[in-house]
Amino acid sequence: MFGLRKHLRAAGGDFVDWASTAPIAQDPAVRAYFSKRVNWFFFVVALIMYSIAWPTLPVTHAVPVFLLPLVAAFAALPIALAWSAPLVGWAISVVSAQVIGLIVPTHSGWELTIQVTHFIELLVLTFMVMLRCQLRWIPVVWLTTSLVVAYAVHPAWIVGISVLAVVVTLLRGLMASRRQLAVRTKQTEEAEAESAVLQERARIARDLHDVVAHRMSMVVVMSQTARYRIDDVSPAAAAEFDAIADAARTSLDEVRQLLGVLRIEGAETVAAPNPGLAQVESLVDETRRAGSEVTLNREVDDEMVGESAALVIYRIVQESLANATRHAPGSRTLVSVTPGEHGTVEVAVVNSAPTAAPLGIGGNGVGIPGMLERAQAVGGSLLAAPTVEGGFAVRARIPATPPRDGILPDAARSVTTPKVPSPASDQ
């Protein structure tokens, strides 16, 4: 027994080696066919059906012995093409079924003009053609198969073929809609990811402008006013301070050029809440050390304001002080953070008219729009305009707790308003 198994394994190995090296096995079409498991499945099914059709064919049909392999082949082997070439297999099956029904006589008592295996093969191939070929072929396949089956089997099968055609058409429509939905979902995800990247770029640009512009402006102001604030500054030290101011201006211009690449106009994002109301006092102190006269009036506790609102207030005060330092040297600035109506915080940064020429630090015009975007992002409003005395005022109304819809009732969306009073009238 053991020796028989050994001989069978050896014979099987030799057959596999021969089959793999045969010329037909090297054909690209043959190699492509057998490279897929589903084709192997239909190939095995075709062999099984052929092994049934050949011996049963003499029972149902009067066929000469030498024609048995050929007729049985038409009744079974085309199903091997059900996946790789369903239209070709269906055409062979339907034509051979009609030809066999017309020219091959049957034995008495057999009601069909074809074998059962041939009928099963035709149904399977019809289903595969309707499922995988172009939609325009479905009416042709349905009509041809219905006529052949009505002649070879029974006219009642026309109803079954019609139901099959309708079901397959609906199934293909459902599959197509799911594919389109998957494509649109992927496109939406890509668009959302791109939008998130653009919003993050805008947030980074806005934060860089708020932080870097403020710090560099302080460097310029402190460098240019050092000779007036410090006694006995030598000419060499004064020249060094001027060089520092020039370098700071150049760096600030380069940073603004980079921000022009990063910034996307119209993007609205809520930055991560880092600094808040507690850091407003240190911001004012830094501005005072630069030689500016700043008065702070803060009547709002940190616990009364949410983190995102506190960050927006801090950024508005930071940008307003930086603008006042750059464009209104020698002015008096009043910073006011007080409770407002309907759970809001009133923020005002108002500077008087300058007593010296501007420092000449160019801007890129994103400061006030950036403040407006931040205010709108938490449902607030912001107004910025010159005062009647020649100064400038920035007033914002920020919800202590931003509303869910991001809209504050009666929120003003404009950055240009009629001239407002100066700090003197406020005080």
Brief summary:
InterPro entries: HATPase_C_sf, Sensor_HK_TwoCompSys, Sig_transdc_His_kin_sub3_dim/P. The protein has 427 residues and is α+β, with helices and mostly antiparallel strands. The chain has helices at residues 2-21, 28-33, 37-60, 68-76, 86-103, 116-132, 137-152, 157-229, 235-262, 280-289, 307-327, 367-377, 423-426; strands at 293-298, 332-339, 344-351, 381-386, 392-399.
What's the main sheet like? 5 strands, mixed
Q: What is the CATH level 1 assignment of the largest domain? A: Alpha Beta
| Secondary-structure element order, N to C | HHHHHHHHHHEHEEHEEH
> What does the average pLDDT come to?
81
Beta percentage is 5-15%
Question: Can you tell me the CATH topology of the largest domain?
Answer: Heat Shock Protein 90
Counting structural domains, the number is 2
Based on Cα principal axes, name the global outline.
Answer: elongated
Tell me the helix content.
55-70%
How do the strands of the widest beta sheet line up side by side? 1-2-3-5-4
CATH H level, superfamily name of the largest domain: Histidine kinase-like ATPase, C-terminal domain
The number of helical runs is: 13
E-strand count: 5
Distance between the termini: 113 Å
Architecture of the largest domain in CATH? 2-Layer Sandwich
InterPro entries: HATPase_C_sf, Sensor_HK_TwoCompSys, Sig_transdc_His_kin_sub3_dim/P
Organism: Gordonia alkanivorans CGMCC 6845
Biased composition (Polar residues): 414-427
GO molecular function: ATP binding; phosphorelay sensor kinase activity; protein dimerization activity
